[in-house]
Amino acid sequence: MTVRLPVLRVAANAAMLIDDFLDEAHLPFVHAAAIGGAGPEPIPADSDTASRLSGAS
């Protein structure tokens, strides 16, 4: 399914917009209240994965 969105015109420098889209490092600083404030989420390993990684059989 294709979703077509309207064009969003922004009065800004195109190079700065591209830099912001490509540079993920600015997220925790610039967007801390919205999308960048959370730390890394722990990924629980199931018992099979944990035993394979530890070398146990």
What would you note in describing this structure?
There is one protein chain. By secondary structure, the protein is an all-alpha fold. 46% of the residues lie in helices and 0% in strands. The protein has four helices and no strands. The protein has helices at 14-22, 27-30, 32-36, 47-54. The longest helix is centred in the N-terminal third of the chain and has 9 residues, at 14-22. The chain is elongated, with a radius of gyration of 20 Å. The mean pLDDT is 75.
Keywords:
single chain; 57 residues; 4 helices
Number of strands: 0
Poorly predicted runs of 5 or more residues: none
Q: Helix coverage percent of residues?
A: 40-55%
Helices and strands: which structural class?
mainly alpha
Number of helices: 4
Topology:
Blueprint: H1 14-22, H2 27-30, H3 32-36, H4 47-54
In short:
This protein is mostly helical and 57 residues long. It has 4 helices and no strands.
